[in-house]
Design a protein that fits this description.
With about 120 residues, the protein is an all-beta fold. It is about 0% helix and about 40% strand. The strands form three sheets. It has a four-stranded antiparallel beta sheet with strand order 2-3-4-8, with no helix packed on it. Strands 1-10-9 form a three-stranded antiparallel beta sheet, with no helix packed on it. The radius of gyration is 13 Å and the shape is globular.
């Protein structure tokens, strides 16, 4: 894909000192998750009920900082794959969004604009 097929999300430095960040791509809420040196993007929508995972503050990790936590139902997800490992949607996965990092900027694929 070429750069023009992606939408600008934010500068990668927005995640400096953070392991997660809530952003929007053309009205669709996404979460950026840092796991080691890797940044992943998922729709900010729990597969159980479609509610946002965070409390509205862009924080998605549990208190131990190891798993993503749905603030509504307590479902837990692996940050590396989006797989639900505990809770009402166990075995389901978060919807992954194609992410491109170039020149310190993060872009999402156009398909993220449609839920």
């Amino acid at each position: 894909m070429t750069l023009k097929e992606h939408r600008f999300l934010c500068n990668a430095s927005a995640l400096d000192g953070r392991n997660s960040l809530g952003v929007e791509c053309e009205g669709t809420k996404l979460m950026l998750i840092r796991s080691g040196d890797t940044i992943r993007a998922y729709l900010n929508s729990c597969p159980h009920r479609g509610v946002p995972l965070d409390w509205g503050n862009g924080e998605f990790f549990d208190s131990g900082g190891e798993l993503l936590l749905c603030s509504t139902h307590g479902a837990l997800f692996l940050p590396s794959t989006g797989l639900c490992v505990a809770g009402p949607c166990q075995g389901s996965s978060l919807k992954s969004i194609a992410l491109l990092e170039r020149d310190g900027k993060l872009y999402c694929c156009d398909s993220a604009s449609t839920p």
